[in-house]
Amino acid sequence: MAEIRLQQLAHSYHANPAGPEDYALRRMEHVWEQGGAYALLGPSGCGKSTLLNIISGLLEPSEGQVLYDGKSVNGLTPQQRNIAQVFQFPVIYDTMTVHDNLAFPLRNQRQPAAKIAERVTEVAQTLEIEHLLHRKARNLTADEKQKVSMGRGLVRDDVAAILFDEPLTVIDPQLKWRLRRKLKQIHERFNITMVYVTHDQLEASTFADKIAVMYDGQIVQFGTPRELFENPAHTFVGYFIGSPGMNLLAVTPSAEGVLLAGIELPLAPATRQALAEWGAQRLMLGIRPEFVQLVAPGQARLRASVGLVQDLGTYRILDLQLKGAVDAPLIKARIEEDQAVPNGEVGVLFPERWTRFYADDVLVEMTEGGHP
Ligand SMILES: Nc1ncnc2c1ncn2[C@@H]1O[C@H](COP(=O)(O)OP(=O)(O)OP(=O)(O)O)[C@@H](O)[C@H]1O
User: The whole model's pTM is what?
Assistant: First the structure.
Protein backbone atom coordinates (compact mmCIF):
# COMPACT_ATOMS: atom_id res chain seq x y z
CA MET A 1 0.00 0.00 0.00
CA ALA A 2 1.43 3.31 -0.97
CA GLU A 3 1.06 7.01 -1.38
CA ILE A 4 1.52 7.81 -5.08
CA ARG A 5 2.98 11.18 -5.91
CA LEU A 6 3.29 12.65 -9.41
CA GLN A 7 6.01 15.25 -9.63
CA GLN A 8 6.33 17.63 -12.59
CA LEU A 9 4.79 14.85 -14.65
CA ALA A 10 4.06 15.34 -18.36
CA HIS A 11 3.74 13.05 -21.32
CA SER A 12 3.86 13.43 -25.07
CA TYR A 13 3.54 10.61 -27.56
CA HIS A 14 5.58 12.75 -30.00
CA ALA A 15 9.32 12.31 -30.06
CA ASN A 16 9.83 16.07 -30.37
CA PRO A 17 6.79 17.88 -28.97
CA ALA A 18 6.52 21.40 -30.37
CA GLY A 19 3.96 22.91 -27.99
CA PRO A 20 1.36 22.16 -25.29
CA GLU A 21 -1.03 20.68 -27.89
CA ASP A 22 1.48 17.87 -28.50
CA TYR A 23 1.14 16.69 -24.89
CA ALA A 24 -1.39 14.02 -23.89
CA LEU A 25 -0.63 15.02 -20.28
CA ARG A 26 0.26 18.61 -19.46
CA ARG A 27 2.70 19.19 -16.60
CA MET A 28 1.06 18.24 -13.30
CA GLU A 29 1.65 17.73 -9.59
CA HIS A 30 -0.69 15.32 -7.84
CA VAL A 31 -0.88 13.07 -4.77
CA TRP A 32 -2.99 9.95 -4.32
CA GLU A 33 -2.86 9.31 -0.59
CA GLN A 34 -2.29 5.88 0.82
CA GLY A 35 -5.55 3.97 1.26
CA GLY A 36 -7.76 6.40 -0.67
CA ALA A 37 -10.58 5.42 -3.05
CA TYR A 38 -10.20 7.70 -6.04
CA ALA A 39 -11.80 8.16 -9.43
CA LEU A 40 -10.17 9.68 -12.46
CA LEU A 41 -13.07 11.11 -14.44
CA GLY A 42 -13.07 12.74 -17.84
CA PRO A 43 -14.23 12.47 -21.45
CA SER A 44 -12.71 10.20 -24.06
CA GLY A 45 -9.22 11.28 -25.09
CA CYS A 46 -8.48 13.54 -22.09
CA GLY A 47 -5.52 11.41 -20.96
CA LYS A 48 -6.95 9.09 -18.29
CA SER A 49 -5.45 5.86 -19.62
CA THR A 50 -2.14 7.58 -20.31
CA LEU A 51 -1.98 8.71 -16.68
CA LEU A 52 -3.00 5.31 -15.33
CA ASN A 53 -0.42 3.51 -17.47
CA ILE A 54 2.28 5.89 -16.25
CA ILE A 55 1.32 5.19 -12.62
CA SER A 56 1.39 1.43 -13.19
CA GLY A 57 4.65 1.43 -15.19
CA LEU A 58 3.22 0.26 -18.52
CA LEU A 59 4.29 3.62 -19.96
CA GLU A 60 7.38 5.69 -19.17
CA PRO A 61 6.58 9.44 -18.84
CA SER A 62 8.49 11.77 -21.10
CA GLU A 63 8.97 14.20 -18.19
CA GLY A 64 8.84 14.07 -14.40
CA GLN A 65 8.73 11.48 -11.67
CA VAL A 66 6.33 8.96 -10.18
CA LEU A 67 7.06 8.41 -6.48
CA TYR A 68 5.69 5.58 -4.35
CA ASP A 69 6.03 6.47 -0.67
CA GLY A 70 8.59 9.08 -1.60
CA LYS A 71 10.77 6.81 -3.76
CA SER A 72 11.00 7.19 -7.53
CA VAL A 73 9.67 4.18 -9.43
CA ASN A 74 10.51 5.52 -12.90
CA GLY A 75 11.99 2.72 -14.98
CA LEU A 76 10.40 -0.04 -12.83
CA THR A 77 7.94 -2.52 -14.38
CA PRO A 78 4.37 -2.93 -12.98
CA GLN A 79 5.57 -6.13 -11.30
CA GLN A 80 8.48 -4.38 -9.64
CA ARG A 81 6.14 -1.59 -8.57
CA ASN A 82 3.87 -4.26 -7.10
CA ILE A 83 0.78 -2.85 -8.70
CA ALA A 84 -2.42 -4.56 -9.88
CA GLN A 85 -4.28 -3.23 -12.90
CA VAL A 86 -7.73 -4.24 -14.13
CA PHE A 87 -8.51 -3.34 -17.73
CA GLN A 88 -11.68 -2.68 -19.71
CA PHE A 89 -11.59 -6.18 -21.20
CA PRO A 90 -10.88 -9.36 -19.26
CA VAL A 91 -7.26 -10.48 -18.98
CA ILE A 92 -7.45 -14.12 -17.96
CA TYR A 93 -6.05 -17.49 -18.95
CA ASP A 94 -8.79 -19.21 -20.95
CA THR A 95 -7.40 -22.72 -20.50
CA MET A 96 -7.19 -22.47 -16.70
CA THR A 97 -10.04 -22.90 -14.26
CA VAL A 98 -11.43 -19.85 -12.47
CA HIS A 99 -9.75 -21.09 -9.29
CA ASP A 100 -6.34 -21.29 -10.97
CA ASN A 101 -6.77 -17.89 -12.58
CA LEU A 102 -7.40 -16.35 -9.17
CA ALA A 103 -4.59 -18.32 -7.52
CA PHE A 104 -2.07 -17.45 -10.24
CA PRO A 105 -0.81 -14.09 -8.87
CA LEU A 106 -0.35 -15.70 -5.42
CA ARG A 107 1.38 -18.81 -6.77
CA ASN A 108 3.76 -16.52 -8.65
CA GLN A 109 4.72 -15.05 -5.31
CA ARG A 110 5.12 -18.54 -3.83
CA GLN A 111 2.53 -17.90 -1.15
CA PRO A 112 1.69 -20.89 1.10
CA ALA A 113 -1.17 -23.10 -0.12
CA ALA A 114 -3.34 -22.32 2.90
CA LYS A 115 -3.09 -18.59 2.29
CA ILE A 116 -3.89 -19.07 -1.42
CA ALA A 117 -6.98 -21.14 -0.61
CA GLU A 118 -8.15 -18.56 1.91
CA ARG A 119 -7.73 -15.55 -0.40
CA VAL A 120 -9.21 -17.25 -3.45
CA THR A 121 -12.30 -18.23 -1.45
CA GLU A 122 -12.63 -14.74 0.02
CA VAL A 123 -12.38 -12.98 -3.33
CA ALA A 124 -14.68 -15.50 -5.06
CA GLN A 125 -17.28 -14.97 -2.32
CA THR A 126 -17.04 -11.21 -2.60
CA LEU A 127 -17.49 -11.27 -6.37
CA GLU A 128 -20.13 -14.01 -6.18
CA ILE A 129 -18.25 -16.42 -8.43
CA GLU A 130 -17.72 -19.28 -5.96
CA HIS A 131 -19.95 -21.55 -8.01
CA LEU A 132 -17.66 -21.04 -11.01
CA LEU A 133 -14.36 -21.90 -9.33
CA HIS A 134 -13.96 -25.26 -11.06
CA ARG A 135 -15.13 -24.14 -14.50
CA LYS A 136 -12.65 -23.46 -17.32
CA ALA A 137 -12.44 -19.70 -17.93
CA ARG A 138 -13.13 -20.06 -21.66
CA ASN A 139 -16.67 -21.30 -20.96
CA LEU A 140 -17.69 -18.21 -19.00
CA THR A 141 -19.87 -15.31 -20.14
CA ALA A 142 -18.31 -11.88 -20.74
CA ASP A 143 -19.56 -10.65 -17.33
CA GLU A 144 -18.16 -13.66 -15.54
CA LYS A 145 -14.80 -13.34 -17.29
CA GLN A 146 -14.53 -9.71 -16.22
CA LYS A 147 -15.35 -10.64 -12.64
CA VAL A 148 -12.49 -13.16 -12.73
CA SER A 149 -10.23 -10.49 -14.19
CA MET A 150 -11.18 -8.16 -11.34
CA GLY A 151 -10.62 -11.00 -8.88
CA ARG A 152 -7.07 -11.43 -10.17
CA GLY A 153 -6.48 -7.76 -9.40
CA LEU A 154 -7.99 -8.03 -5.92
CA VAL A 155 -6.53 -11.34 -4.77
CA ARG A 156 -3.23 -9.98 -3.46
CA ASP A 157 -3.45 -7.95 -0.27
CA ASP A 158 0.12 -6.60 -0.42
CA VAL A 159 -0.11 -4.47 -3.58
CA ALA A 160 0.94 -0.82 -3.60
CA ALA A 161 -2.34 0.07 -5.35
CA ILE A 162 -5.04 -1.33 -7.60
CA LEU A 163 -5.77 0.60 -10.78
CA PHE A 164 -9.04 0.09 -12.64
CA ASP A 165 -9.39 1.27 -16.24
CA GLU A 166 -13.15 1.38 -17.01
CA PRO A 167 -13.53 -2.17 -15.62
CA LEU A 168 -17.32 -2.32 -15.86
CA THR A 169 -17.67 -1.41 -19.55
CA VAL A 170 -18.45 -4.99 -20.62
CA ILE A 171 -20.62 -5.72 -17.59
CA ASP A 172 -24.38 -6.00 -17.86
CA PRO A 173 -26.04 -2.77 -16.59
CA GLN A 174 -27.98 -4.67 -13.91
CA LEU A 175 -24.76 -6.01 -12.46
CA LYS A 176 -22.76 -2.79 -12.73
CA TRP A 177 -24.31 -1.17 -9.73
CA ARG A 178 -23.76 -4.22 -7.53
CA LEU A 179 -20.15 -4.58 -8.60
CA ARG A 180 -19.44 -0.91 -7.88
CA ARG A 181 -20.83 -1.39 -4.39
CA LYS A 182 -18.68 -4.49 -4.03
CA LEU A 183 -15.53 -2.64 -5.02
CA LYS A 184 -16.37 -0.01 -2.45
CA GLN A 185 -16.80 -2.69 0.22
CA ILE A 186 -13.53 -4.31 -0.79
CA HIS A 187 -11.83 -0.95 -0.48
CA GLU A 188 -13.29 -0.38 2.98
CA ARG A 189 -12.20 -3.83 4.06
CA PHE A 190 -8.64 -3.90 2.73
CA ASN A 191 -7.74 -0.20 2.78
CA ILE A 192 -5.75 -0.42 -0.46
CA THR A 193 -5.12 2.70 -2.56
CA MET A 194 -7.48 2.40 -5.53
CA VAL A 195 -7.69 4.59 -8.62
CA TYR A 196 -10.71 4.02 -10.83
CA VAL A 197 -10.82 5.46 -14.34
CA THR A 198 -14.21 6.24 -15.83
CA HIS A 199 -16.04 8.71 -18.05
CA ASP A 200 -19.27 8.18 -16.08
CA GLN A 201 -19.92 10.63 -13.24
CA LEU A 202 -22.32 8.29 -11.47
CA GLU A 203 -19.77 5.50 -11.51
CA ALA A 204 -17.11 7.89 -10.18
CA SER A 205 -19.22 9.22 -7.33
CA THR A 206 -20.53 5.84 -6.16
CA PHE A 207 -17.02 4.45 -5.95
CA ALA A 208 -14.75 7.31 -4.94
CA ASP A 209 -14.28 9.49 -1.89
CA LYS A 210 -12.46 11.98 -4.08
CA ILE A 211 -12.62 12.51 -7.83
CA ALA A 212 -9.92 13.94 -10.08
CA VAL A 213 -11.61 15.53 -13.09
CA MET A 214 -9.42 15.47 -16.20
CA TYR A 215 -9.81 17.71 -19.18
CA ASP A 216 -7.43 18.18 -22.05
CA GLY A 217 -4.44 16.49 -20.39
CA GLN A 218 -4.86 18.21 -17.03
CA ILE A 219 -6.47 17.50 -13.67
CA VAL A 220 -8.72 20.56 -13.46
CA GLN A 221 -10.19 19.73 -10.04
CA PHE A 222 -9.63 17.17 -7.29
CA GLY A 223 -12.44 17.06 -4.76
CA THR A 224 -15.35 15.20 -3.19
CA PRO A 225 -18.44 14.67 -5.37
CA ARG A 226 -20.11 17.41 -3.35
CA GLU A 227 -17.27 19.89 -3.89
CA LEU A 228 -17.39 19.24 -7.63
CA PHE A 229 -21.12 19.86 -7.63
CA GLU A 230 -21.22 22.91 -5.38
CA ASN A 231 -18.01 24.63 -6.29
CA PRO A 232 -16.67 23.68 -9.72
CA ALA A 233 -13.13 25.05 -10.05
CA HIS A 234 -13.33 25.14 -13.86
CA THR A 235 -16.16 25.62 -16.34
CA PHE A 236 -15.49 22.10 -17.65
CA VAL A 237 -16.30 20.63 -14.22
CA GLY A 238 -19.49 22.70 -14.08
CA TYR A 239 -20.52 21.45 -17.49
CA PHE A 240 -19.43 17.80 -17.10
CA ILE A 241 -20.75 17.13 -13.59
CA GLY A 242 -24.50 17.31 -13.05
CA SER A 243 -27.40 16.40 -15.27
CA PRO A 244 -27.83 18.72 -17.01
CA GLY A 245 -24.61 20.60 -16.28
CA MET A 246 -24.15 24.12 -14.97
CA ASN A 247 -25.57 27.08 -16.89
CA LEU A 248 -22.52 29.04 -18.09
CA LEU A 249 -23.43 32.51 -19.27
CA ALA A 250 -21.20 35.17 -20.82
CA VAL A 251 -21.26 38.38 -18.76
CA THR A 252 -19.36 41.66 -18.75
CA PRO A 253 -18.47 43.77 -15.69
CA SER A 254 -20.60 46.88 -15.18
CA ALA A 255 -20.80 49.69 -12.64
CA GLU A 256 -23.04 47.82 -10.21
CA GLY A 257 -22.19 44.23 -11.02
CA VAL A 258 -22.35 42.40 -14.33
CA LEU A 259 -24.39 42.66 -17.51
CA LEU A 260 -26.14 39.53 -18.71
CA ALA A 261 -27.93 39.83 -22.04
CA GLY A 262 -28.09 43.59 -21.52
CA ILE A 263 -29.62 43.30 -18.03
CA GLU A 264 -27.59 44.50 -15.06
CA LEU A 265 -27.29 42.08 -12.14
CA PRO A 266 -26.06 43.95 -9.09
CA LEU A 267 -23.27 42.33 -7.05
CA ALA A 268 -21.82 42.83 -3.59
CA PRO A 269 -18.78 45.20 -3.57
CA ALA A 270 -16.42 42.36 -2.56
CA THR A 271 -17.51 40.34 -5.58
CA ARG A 272 -17.12 43.28 -7.92
CA GLN A 273 -13.63 43.82 -6.58
CA ALA A 274 -12.68 40.16 -7.03
CA LEU A 275 -13.90 40.28 -10.62
CA ALA A 276 -12.04 43.54 -11.28
CA GLU A 277 -8.78 41.87 -10.18
CA TRP A 278 -9.12 39.42 -13.04
CA GLY A 279 -9.07 42.28 -15.50
CA ALA A 280 -10.66 42.05 -18.90
CA GLN A 281 -10.56 38.28 -19.35
CA ARG A 282 -13.48 36.28 -20.72
CA LEU A 283 -15.98 36.27 -17.88
CA MET A 284 -18.77 33.75 -17.30
CA LEU A 285 -21.45 33.41 -14.69
CA GLY A 286 -22.13 29.83 -13.59
CA ILE A 287 -25.31 28.63 -11.90
CA ARG A 288 -26.57 25.08 -11.63
CA PRO A 289 -30.14 24.36 -12.86
CA GLU A 290 -30.93 23.16 -9.32
CA PHE A 291 -30.25 26.63 -7.89
CA VAL A 292 -32.10 28.80 -10.42
CA GLN A 293 -35.13 30.30 -8.64
CA LEU A 294 -38.37 31.08 -10.42
CA VAL A 295 -40.55 33.92 -9.18
CA ALA A 296 -43.32 36.15 -10.50
CA PRO A 297 -42.13 38.27 -13.48
CA GLY A 298 -42.36 41.49 -11.46
CA GLN A 299 -40.05 40.20 -8.72
CA ALA A 300 -36.83 39.86 -10.72
CA ARG A 301 -34.72 41.91 -13.10
CA LEU A 302 -34.20 38.87 -15.28
CA ARG A 303 -37.21 37.48 -17.06
CA ALA A 304 -37.63 34.47 -19.27
CA SER A 305 -40.22 32.64 -21.30
CA VAL A 306 -40.77 28.99 -20.46
CA GLY A 307 -40.00 26.62 -23.31
CA LEU A 308 -39.60 22.85 -23.32
CA VAL A 309 -40.49 21.03 -20.09
CA GLN A 310 -38.86 17.62 -19.61
CA ASP A 311 -40.52 15.39 -17.08
CA LEU A 312 -37.90 13.16 -15.47
CA GLY A 313 -39.98 11.41 -12.82
CA THR A 314 -39.17 13.06 -9.51
CA TYR A 315 -38.18 16.38 -11.10
CA ARG A 316 -38.57 18.46 -14.25
CA ILE A 317 -36.07 20.37 -16.35
CA LEU A 318 -37.33 23.60 -17.87
CA ASP A 319 -35.82 25.46 -20.80
CA LEU A 320 -35.96 29.18 -20.11
CA GLN A 321 -35.33 31.69 -22.86
CA LEU A 322 -33.96 34.80 -21.15
CA LYS A 323 -35.27 38.15 -22.30
CA GLY A 324 -33.12 41.15 -23.03
CA ALA A 325 -30.58 41.40 -25.82
CA VAL A 326 -31.32 39.55 -29.08
CA ASP A 327 -28.66 36.98 -28.29
CA ALA A 328 -29.98 36.35 -24.76
CA PRO A 329 -29.14 32.74 -23.88
CA LEU A 330 -31.33 29.78 -23.06
CA ILE A 331 -30.87 28.44 -19.54
CA LYS A 332 -32.04 25.34 -17.73
CA ALA A 333 -33.82 25.22 -14.39
CA ARG A 334 -34.75 22.18 -12.33
CA ILE A 335 -37.97 22.06 -10.35
CA GLU A 336 -39.20 19.26 -8.11
CA GLU A 337 -42.30 17.27 -9.02
CA ASP A 338 -44.41 18.97 -6.33
CA GLN A 339 -43.63 22.46 -7.72
CA ALA A 340 -46.10 23.92 -10.21
CA VAL A 341 -44.78 24.33 -13.77
CA PRO A 342 -44.99 28.01 -14.65
CA ASN A 343 -46.09 28.93 -18.14
CA GLY A 344 -45.64 32.07 -20.16
CA GLU A 345 -43.24 34.46 -18.51
CA VAL A 346 -41.30 33.98 -15.25
CA GLY A 347 -38.90 36.03 -13.16
CA VAL A 348 -35.47 34.40 -12.74
CA LEU A 349 -33.25 34.80 -9.69
CA PHE A 350 -29.71 33.54 -9.18
CA PRO A 351 -29.26 33.16 -5.40
CA GLU A 352 -26.01 34.78 -4.33
CA ARG A 353 -24.82 31.73 -2.46
CA TRP A 354 -24.85 29.54 -5.58
CA THR A 355 -23.64 31.94 -8.23
CA ARG A 356 -20.06 31.47 -9.42
CA PHE A 357 -17.85 33.45 -11.78
CA TYR A 358 -15.22 32.12 -14.15
CA ALA A 359 -12.47 34.18 -15.74
CA ASP A 360 -11.01 32.39 -18.75
CA ASP A 361 -12.76 29.23 -17.47
CA VAL A 362 -11.14 29.32 -14.01
CA LEU A 363 -13.22 29.92 -10.87
CA VAL A 364 -12.86 33.40 -9.41
CA GLU A 365 -12.23 32.70 -5.73
CA MET A 366 -14.22 34.87 -3.35
CA THR A 367 -13.25 35.71 0.21
CA GLU A 368 -15.74 34.70 2.90
CA GLY A 369 -18.99 36.58 2.36
CA GLY A 370 -17.81 37.74 -1.04
CA HIS A 371 -20.14 35.58 -3.08
CA PRO A 372 -22.61 37.79 -4.85
N1 LIG B 1 -0.07 5.06 -28.11
C2 LIG B 1 -0.42 6.29 -28.46
N3 LIG B 1 0.22 6.95 -29.43
C4 LIG B 1 -0.13 8.21 -29.79
N5 LIG B 1 -1.12 8.91 -29.21
C6 LIG B 1 -1.80 8.30 -28.23
C7 LIG B 1 -1.50 6.97 -27.81
N8 LIG B 1 -2.36 6.64 -26.79
C9 LIG B 1 -3.14 7.71 -26.60
N10 LIG B 1 -2.82 8.71 -27.46
C11 LIG B 1 -3.46 10.04 -27.53
O12 LIG B 1 -3.31 10.67 -26.26
C13 LIG B 1 -4.49 11.35 -25.87
C14 LIG B 1 -5.00 10.79 -24.53
O15 LIG B 1 -5.44 9.44 -24.75
P16 LIG B 1 -5.91 8.48 -23.55
O17 LIG B 1 -6.16 7.13 -24.13
O18 LIG B 1 -4.94 8.58 -22.43
O19 LIG B 1 -7.27 9.17 -23.14
P20 LIG B 1 -8.48 8.57 -22.31
O21 LIG B 1 -8.99 9.72 -21.50
O22 LIG B 1 -8.07 7.36 -21.58
O23 LIG B 1 -9.54 8.22 -23.44
P24 LIG B 1 -10.46 6.92 -23.61
O25 LIG B 1 -11.49 7.01 -22.51
O26 LIG B 1 -11.04 7.11 -24.96
O27 LIG B 1 -9.56 5.74 -23.49
C28 LIG B 1 -5.48 11.17 -27.02
O29 LIG B 1 -5.39 12.30 -27.84
C30 LIG B 1 -4.96 9.95 -27.75
O31 LIG B 1 -5.28 10.01 -29.12
Answer: 0.91
